[in-house]
Amino acid sequence: MEQIEFRGVTKSFSKGRDKVVAVTNINLAIPKGSFLSITGESGSGKSTLLRMIAGIERPSAGTIYVKDVDLWGLRYFKRRRFCKETFAQMHRMIDVRRYKTALDMVTRELPKSMDKAAKRAKALDMLDRVGLANRASNQPAKLSGGELRRVALARALATERPIVLAEEPTGQVDPSTAKALLTLIREINSQSGTTFLVVTDSEALAREATRTIRLEEGRIAYDHSRTFSPFTRH
Ligand code: ADP
Ligand code: MG
């Protein structure tokens, strides 16, 4: 069964008397455990597509199913709760001044009902999964851009939600660091069964995912899947 399915989804915005069609008649099936990148030039509809999945932007026509639920058929509060349980957002910008350490950044994503020791253990485990176990007690301001991106990934994973949404997760880091982040996501994706949807305007980065759709003027111009050799753990 598909985890996310678009059926004839169109989104238009009215600009004064004009109508801007952001996304046109999208049909798309995304199975559980996918690592899908969404690419295309600026204005091609990438963000609109992701925002419709995230429950933020309502389609003008068509239906989006998430885990067999007609997402936009839900009423506001139900939809909000459903999205909160289903999606983890990997934020590009985190206000680091709010946190004392890298560990603290992850811990605060965990449920309030967890006790302190369990939170700490879990947050350390998440930092370990993104290769930052030795940075746990670092002040966020002393982490590099690439390390902060990985903390953002650890935070998303800590929520244990089945689908991670990331809008330009590699913003403001150099190309090799960006590529390493996508490779890390691919490794975690292959081990965890968590679905990742990543929007990026970089074709090169989009190719690090196991499937890429490219939008052109709101339509899917291509949909390409690829395989990578398995990761070897030493
Ligand atoms: P991308 O993320 O690929 O750059 P967007 O999804 O942001 O593209 O935008 C696609 C098109 O929809 C663009 O023409 C954009 O101007 C238009 N658009 C997006 N959001 C709005 C909005 N809230 N109001 C009006 N037009 C919008
Ligand atoms: Mg965008």
Blueprint of the fold:
Layout: E1 2-15, E2 18-31, E3 35-40, H1 46-53, E4 61-66, E5 69-70, H2 76-86, E6 87-90, H3 102-107, H4 116-129, H5 145-158, E7 163-167, H6 175-192, E8 195-199, H7 203-206, E9 211-216, E10 219-225
The chain binds adenosine-5'-diphosphate (ADP) and magnesium ion.
Q: What do these coordinates show?
A:
The protein is built from 7 helices and 10 strands. The mean pLDDT is 94. It has 234 residues and is an alpha/beta fold. The strands form 2 sheets. A 6-stranded mixed β-sheet has the order 6-7-8-3-9-10, sandwiched between helices. Strands 2-1-4-5 form a 4-stranded antiparallel β-sheet, with helices on one face. The chain has helices spanning 46-53, 76-86, 102-107, 116-129, 145-158, 175-192, 203-206; strands at residues 2-15, 18-31, 35-40, 61-66, 69-70, 87-90, 163-167, 195-199, 211-216, 219-225. The chain has one domain: Rossmann fold, CATH 3.40.50.300. The structure holds adenosine-5'-diphosphate and magnesium ion. Adenosine-5'-diphosphate is lined by residues 13, 15, 20, 22, 40, 42-48.
Write a compact overview of the structure shown.
By secondary structure, the chain is α/β, with parallel strands linked by helices. The chain has 7 helices and 10 strands. It has a single domain (2-225), classed as P-loop containing nucleotide triphosphate hydrolases (Rossmann fold, 3-Layer(aba) Sandwich), CATH 3.40.50.
